[in-house]
Amino acid sequence: SRDGTMGASLMAVSATHAVPVESDISVGRFWWVPLATGVLTVIVGLIALVYPGPTLLVICVVVGVYLLISGGMTLVRALGGERGLTTMMRVVLVLFGLLSLLAGLILLVRPGESVLAIAWVLGFWWVLTGAMQLIAGIIDAEGRGWNIGLGLLGLVAGGIILAQPEIGLTTLVWIVGIGLLLRGAVEIALGLAIRKLHRSEAV
Hints:
Elements lengths: L1 H25 L5 H19 L5 H24 L7 H23 L5 H25 L4 H20 L5 H34 L1
Helix pairs in contact: 1-7, 2-3, 2-7, 3-4, 4-5, 5-6, 6-7
């Protein structure tokens, strides 16, 4: 019948439009990862700055645990099937996550090594991750501003530490604490921006 033919046509049209809508909604569904990582980063930065008389053991444990959690959450975002991420961004996120896990393990396995050893670990972590994010920001248009900002922050913080690796514990804590606060603020802003974009696409 004519009604049956028209109904079938409408169902066919609906079916053809269902896939793109579902695909769009899935883009950015991991917005909570950079947001949660940013909140965690700010908390660790505050602990590093506010904790009275920081000891080598406390700093190693706090920062080491942070790097493990942050690295794990970054890998979840990179490998969790989030649509919309370019290949370049996935590679950067995977490398960032692996480097964070490695640095965190080093700090936790040998927590009382020396201020010099901690400075080298954190300095190289800042520089390597900063360089990766800066390169990603230059090459890939996705999240360019955020990546360039985080990349420059990492290079500056890591450069300061590596330029004077024999700095005292208090100075190291201040550099790391301020760097983490700035990084956390950027990550929170990034997470909120992705969340806003995700909600607008879902409407």
